[in-house]
């Protein structure tokens, strides 16, 4: 099977989406005869080519981070470019991966509904959406903590490569935990401040400015809402 | 009230949409509101590249020195912000979406808090504008599309520390939409 993959991350080759996809792809390629073509939507200048790739594909995977509760602007621009393909016969089947920085899957469930509808709009058979939270930290957390996540994406790739479907058990594993316990939250918060946000702020000499309100109108003349 | 209208219509030939917003702006001004309309397609706004510059380099401002800074300034200093766009492929325009991303990040802090059992970012400002959505239906846009968009924007409102006002359509009379804003 030939899979046409679109990486929708605005960070392109430096994205966490790319890391997740790498593990998925190595599982997918375990099946003999499988091949794939990978495009980065952030290369906006290649937009026309993306439409052709979409049009000619048999199987499509669109992987995207969650930006402000929906798809990033570049992914929406890509979707708009697909408008001429709506209702066309023989469109590919399509599956999605949505990853968020927020740990809970609930944040991505609303975009999932949009993606189901989008598939129907494009006349594509919908293959499901894999949702994974807490992905932002994967580059800074120790390798052993990511092992299970990467292995799950690898296994997901294997079954997708064999059957053309996402394994439902793996999908529900990835969407856990549904909610963070009080303890899990405090752990996430302390770790993310200590090893992620604050070191970046300090490196940029911006730590003292971290609470700045550059747009605040000081006169106090604004009415209250 | 200070009202900002974000015109996310990417299509210069779609005069009906722009005329509707003009009409709405005039109606609101007549009821003593201070209205600013930003025509996003005429502004130089780059896509968010996920660099976190607005949190860790130039806190509270997009690190790209583009016109999104003007949008964010108008946004946070408003009492009400209307996100306005034609529906394209079942969602507001990419033009509006890219502004939404920049506005959201600039007005929040990187740090986390837990609200109603969900992780969110801590607010950067003491107060936030209420938001609403005005959509123009395309031929292929059905009620389910509107519902999906409405629900996504209601989530967005939670994440930007505010309550969601309403989703209205340009098929609604201007006066009704203006009344909706008046009654917030």
Keywords:
heterodimer, A: 225 residues, alpha/beta, Rossmann fold, five-stranded parallel β-sheet, globular, B: 184 residues, two-stranded antiparallel ribbon, 6 helices, 7 strands, 37% helix
Polypeptide structure, described:
The complex is a heterodimer of chains A (225) and B (184). Chain A is α/β, with parallel strands linked by helices. Chain A has helices spanning 16-28, 47-56, 73-81, 106-122, 143-163, 168-174, 182-203, and strands spanning 2-7, 35-40, 59-65, 93-99, 125-132. In chain A, α4 links the parallel β4 and β5. The radius of gyration of chain A is 20 Å and the shape is globular. Chain B has a single domain (2-182), classed as Flavodoxin domain (Rossmann fold). Chain B contains six helices and seven strands. In chain B, the strands form two sheets. In chain B, strands 2-1-3-6-7 form a five-stranded parallel sheet, with helices on both faces. Chain B has a two-stranded antiparallel sheet with strand order 4-5. In chain B, α1 crosses α6 and α3 crosses α4 (94-106). The longest helix of chain B has 17 residues, at 143-159. The mean pLDDT of chain B is 97. The chains are: A alpha/beta (225), B alpha/beta (184). Chains A and B meet through α3, α4 and α7 of A and α3, α4, β4, β5 and α5 of B.
């Amino acid at each position: 099977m030939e899979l046409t993959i679109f990486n929708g991350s605005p960070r392109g080759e430096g994205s966490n989406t790319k890391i997740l996809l790498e593990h998925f792809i190595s599982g997918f390629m375990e099946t003999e005869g499988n091949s794939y073509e990978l495009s980065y939507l952030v290369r906006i200048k290649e937009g026309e080519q993306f439409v052709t790739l979409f049009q000619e594909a048999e199987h499509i995977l669109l992987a995207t981070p969650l930006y402000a509760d929906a798809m990033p602007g570049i992914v929406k621009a890509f979707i708009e470019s697909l408008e001429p393909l709506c209702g066309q016969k023989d469109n590919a089947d399509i599956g999605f991966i949505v990853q968020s920085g927020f740990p809970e899957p609930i944040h991505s469930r609303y975009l999932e509904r949009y993606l189901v509808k989008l598939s129907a709009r494009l006349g594509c058979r919908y293959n499901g959406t894999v949702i994974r939270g807490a992905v932002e930290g994967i580059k800074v957390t120790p390798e052993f903590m990511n092992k299970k996540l990467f292995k799950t994406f690898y296994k997901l790739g294997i079954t997708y490569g064999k059957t053309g479907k996402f394994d439902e058990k793996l999908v529900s594993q990835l969407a856990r935990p549904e909610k963070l316990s009080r303890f899990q939250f405090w752990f996430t918060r302390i770790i993310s401040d200590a090893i992620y946000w604050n070191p970046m702020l300090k490196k940029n000499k911006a730590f003292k400015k971290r609470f700045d309100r550059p747009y605040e109108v000081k006169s106090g003349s604004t009415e209250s809402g | 009230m200070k009202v900002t209208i974000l015109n996310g219509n990417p299509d210069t030939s779609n005069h009906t949409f722009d005329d509707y917003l003009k009409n709405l702006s005039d109606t609101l001004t007549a009821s003593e509101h201070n209205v600013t309309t930003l025509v996003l397609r005429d502004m130089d706004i780059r896509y968010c590249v996920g660099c976190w510059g607005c949190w860790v380099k130039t806190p509270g401002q997009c690190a790209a020195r583009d016109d999104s800074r003007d949008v964010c300034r108008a946004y946070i200093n408003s009492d009400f912000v209307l996100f306005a766009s034609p529906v394209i492929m079942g969602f507001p325009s990419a033009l509006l979406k890219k502004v939404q991303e920049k506005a959201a990040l600039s007005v929040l802090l990187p740090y986390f808090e837990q609200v109603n059992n969900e992780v969110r970012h801590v607010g950067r400002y003491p107060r936030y504008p209420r938001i609403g959505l005005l959509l123009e239906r395309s031929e292929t846009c059905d009620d389910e599309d509107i519902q999906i968009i409405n629900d996504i924007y209601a989530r967005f409102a939670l994440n930007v520390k505010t309550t969601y006002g309403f989703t209205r359509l340009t098929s609604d009379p201007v006066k009704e939409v203006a009344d909706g804003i008046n009654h917030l």
